[in-house]
Amino acid sequence: MDVEFNKYLNKLVKEGVFPGCSYCIITNDKIIKGSVGYKALIPNKEKNDINALHDIASLTKLLVTNLLIALLLRDKLIDLNDYVIKYLPNFKYDNVKIIHLLTHSSGIKPLFDKFNIKSKDEFLTNIELEFTPGTSAHYIDNNFILLGFIVEKIYNKPIDILANELIFKPLEMRDTSYNPTDTERCVPTEDTKDRGLVKGFVHDEKAYFLNGVAGHAGVFSTIDDLSHFLEMILHDGYYKGKQIIDKTYIDLWFTPLFISEDSIRRTVGWIYAKSSVLAQDICSDDTIIHTGFPGHEILIDRANDFAFVMLSNRIHPTRDNKLLLEKRKDINKKLYSLLKKYEMIY
Questions:
Q1: What are the boundaries of each domain within the chain?
Q2: Nearest-5° angle of CA 65, CA 205, CA 119?
Q3: CATH top class, domain 2-341
């Protein structure tokens, strides 16, 4: 199967969909990993490899913040119906709940002015609402930035330290961190006007102004490390026989709660895949999905006991390359067809 899938992905490289990508497929206790194309095109071409460190962008929301919230729920240090103002007294609104942030139903407006988030206090001061919390859903980073602040407030520790202690070490994610030190292994993202070629530091501007450490973005990881996270979810919260989180909280990730104006159904942290154009007609009813701006995707189909992660560099050297946005569904279709062909799902 991996030969056919690699051939398909190499075709996308030739078509300019992305310079390269790495992936992992987990099903029936089999793990298939691969990489194709190039890690970098400028200043020199560099071949991609499975050990490349990617800026995982919005996948940070799932791996770090969503999981830390689950640990807080487990330890009864937080409740989904708690109001944000309980933990962040400088927050201006008294009707926004934790569950609203997790499901992107808070009503908070995006902050487009990057200079408004140079500090946590400035960020809180500039928050505005565009609709009543809980009445709709609109995906924005601000929700998970706030969740990151809340996690730090309750634990009284920075989120990067918490992530390392409570997630990366237990899941044996040895190459995963905020602000990586081994920058040579990092996949460069965009060649920007103000920062030059971004490599080894977070691409997202909001996380950049928060010193690379935030609840919505900032983590760098490898395909191998992320496979441990996927295994944990497929095994109901266990990794190598050790319980990381109770299945009750994982079930929340698979339970649609809010519907956005574009009919996307949102769970705690994730998108319910049956409502997403990327997978709705090919996945089971027990599937979640999430993407990341540089060209990433995680899809977990519990009914088929299968998970998939792809890390690509479609924004290298420019975000103007939007071909992947048109090809994501085709990639998922190809993947499902090959899994069925080789009787790895039914």
A1: 2-341
A2: 70
A3: alpha beta
